Structure formats: C-alpha cells, structure tokens
Amino acid sequence: MPRDTSPINLPRKADAQGVLRHALSGALGRIAMVSSFGAESVVLLHMVAQIAPATPVIFIDTLMLFPETLAYQREVAERLQLSDLRIIQPDPEALFAKDPDGILHLAEPDACCDLRKTQVLDKALTGFDGWITGRKRFQGASRATLEPYERDAATGLIKVNPLADWDIARIRAYREAHDLPPHPLVAKGFQSIGCAPCTSPVAAGEDPRAGRWRGQEKIECGIHVQDGRVIRGKDLVGQELPGTELPTKLRGKVA
Ligand code: SF4
Fold first, then answer.
1. Residue 10 in contact with residue 20, Cβ under 8 Å?
2. 112 marked among binding-site residues
3. Is there a smaller number of Cβ atoms within 10 Å at the N or the C end of the chain?
C-alpha cells in the first residue's frame, strides 16, 4: 500500500495536553512515545502517564549513554509507573560487525548513530502509525519551525510534538509544580543529553544543543533528517552542503 504523504490537517492551537489527548485517542492510529529520558523528558512523560498510562514508551539504549541517564530512566519509569516501557538496544551482531571496539563514533558519527539509533528505532516503530517526540523550537535553529503535528514524507509516519512551542522556563515550572525529578546532569551544565562520548556541558548563552557533537558539523542525531539528509550546521545558514544520504527506509526518524 502506498505511504500516506498527505499533510496533517489538525488544529495547531491546542495546548500540549490537548495535542496529546488527540494523538492518544486512537484518531491517528497506533502512536508510541519515543523518549531519551534526557534533560526535559520527564515533563512529557508525566503528561503521557496522566492521559494514557498504557502508551508504549520507547527508550533507545545505545549502550553509550551516561550511567546517570540509565539511573534516571529507571527512577522516572518507576515514579510515573510507565506500564509499557520498551528499552531497545542495537543488534549485537551488527555491533560486532561494525563497531566491535566502540569507537565508530570517533571516525564516523553518522554511521554510529545509524547503527545504534536509527536502525534500532526503525525496527521498534514497525506497526505504529506515528510517534510522540519531545522536540521544541527553542532547542536550536534546526527545530525553530517545528509544528505540533508533522507527517514524515519518507515514511508516512506522523510525528507529534506537543511541546513544540514551550520554552525552558515553562518546562521547569511544570516540572517543579508536579515535583518531578530533574536529570542529574542538568545541574552540571548539560542542557541536551545524548550519548556520553558525544555530549558536553554548555555555557550560559549557548544554544542548548551546542554540547552535542561539539566541534563537528553534525547537529542532529542520525534519526533526525531533513529532505533525506542528516542536518548539518551549515545547512541552517544557507550554505551548500551535500549532507549524508540515507537509505529511504531510514529517513525521517527523529532524535
Ligand atoms: S550520539 Fe555518538 S555515540 Fe551515540 S550513536 Fe551517535 S555517534 Fe554514536
């Protein structure tokens, strides 16, 4: 059956909970949440747990995460009583074949993200019609025009971004109002938290994602692409860059 590539004609003015309620009502088909259990993830996880606690929550353990993230994931999942948490990991055989020493990220970070994230998530999303992401516009230029609902043209999957227009103050206020635990690395200057070898703290005034792949052109995970290419820093200032072409089935996934 051909993939649905039609635009999603849904109200853009609903608040985050309204967007989530609609997404989880069944009206959009089978929807999962994908969470990194990162710096601000607990807010959206809390909303999902309140609205539809049986929602499948997918967590990609790349086997390169900070121990703090793994501990935080366990703490939050228990606190929110997530009943369908799906912890997914890279295929051991593929890891052995392509990154036996765990150093692929040094030479080929796109290939590493593909191996440890994109392929894994692609498999986990089989059977779903869409997924909820925690992306927000304030997180950087690559996300500045984010809408609450998107349809990935390559895969036909719906991406739901309930917090697209939330800023950091609003997120912190929600977390504090609901007494939700912060990620332990936030207090150490991490504002966006991915794999340990590719994440560093950010200074005041820096883009919140400046600590991801610092010093490289790469600014988005391999599962977050645009027009079929991994987004590069220069793509956002109008300069020509070829990017990295991905196989069709891997395009359009989100970090
Ligand atoms: S963030 Fe770094 S370590 Fe993690 S999958 Fe991507 S390149 Fe590999």
1. no
2. yes
3. N
pLDDT for position 205: 80
Q: DSSP string of 6-40? A: PPP---S---HHHHHHHHTTTTTSSEEEE----SS
- Ligand 1 centroid to residue 51 C-alpha, Å: 32
Instruction: Report how many domains make up the chain.
Output: 1
pLDDT of res. 7: 56
Confidence at residue 9, expressed as pLDDT on a 0 to 100 scale? 58
pTM: 0.84
Domain boundaries, position 181: 16-187
CATH of residue 51's domain is 3.40.50.620
Q: Is 198 in the pocket of ligand 1 (CB under 6 A)?
A: yes
C-beta of residue 145 within 8 angstroms of C-beta of residue 239 = no
- Substitution candidate for ligand 1 out of 59, 101, 113, 120 with most atoms within 8 A of CB: 113
Residues (pLDDT < 50) of the chain are 232, 234-255
| Dist. CA 132 → ligand 1 center (Å) | 21
